[in-house]
Design a protein that fits this description.
about 190 residues, alpha+beta, Nuclear Transport Factor 2, Chain: A, 4-stranded antiparallel β-sheet
Length: about 190
């Protein structure tokens, strides 16, 4: 048996519809401001980023066939927080999308082994970070700062990074740690 709606039922339905319409309006107008992640340009999917990262490792001559692969979405925490604190959400979102701040992290590893590869591909399809960890006791030569800088520059302009133009960047710092053979290049865009 179907019950008839009384005045209180109709009133409750009317209030729910009004609240739904107001909620829809607020969501449509303020979603990107309330949720900055909604403004991320996703030009590259997780699968596309994996393919690009594999291509980079193959071009460098690494065989990762026996490695396990894991991937996740990430962002530069401190940079994102700083920009969102000091700029409007629109300006911060634009800068974060134009730089490599949002990325797909791809990692290849063999469990219980030190050697692993980490390749971060930005959501716009550019290389955001490349890391190859090796055992500290692995055989290898120590590089001078000059040789390490040449190796890094060759890597950047060899096609591993699409459209890398050294003229638009300025070298800020080089840190070379013996034994670990780590080269840290901190670069920033030149301002006109």
């Amino acid at each position: 048996m179907i019950e008839k709606l009384n005045y209180q039922d109709k009133r409750l339905i009317f209030i729910c519809v009004i609240i739904s319409v107001i909620s829809f309006f607020i969501t449509q107008n303020y979603y990107n401001q309330a949720f900055p992640y909604a403004s991320i340009d996703m030009d590259v999917t997780q699968d596309d980023a994996k393919i690009l990262a594999e291509k980079l490792l193959r071009n460098k001559g690494y065989n990762i066939q026996d490695y396990k692969q894991a991937s996740k979405f990430g962002h530069l925490d401190r940079e994102k927080l700083f920009l969102e604190y000091h700029l409007s959400r629109e300006e911060a979102g634009e800068i974060l999308n134009e730089t490599n701040s949002y990325y797909w992290q791809n990692r290849w590893f063999i469990p219980e082994q030190k050697e692993e590869f980490k390749v971060n591909i930005s959501t716009t399809g550019k290389l955001a970070e490349y890391e190859h960890k090796i055992d500290e006791n692995a055989p290898g030569d120590a590089l001078s700062k000059e040789n390490a800088l040449q190796v890094a520059q060759l890597f950047l302009i060899s096609g591993a990074v699409d459209s890398w133009d050294m003229e638009n960047w300025k070298l800020e710092n080089i840190v070379l740690q013996p034994k670990i053979l780590v080269l840290l290049l901190i670069v920033r865009a030149k301002r006109d």
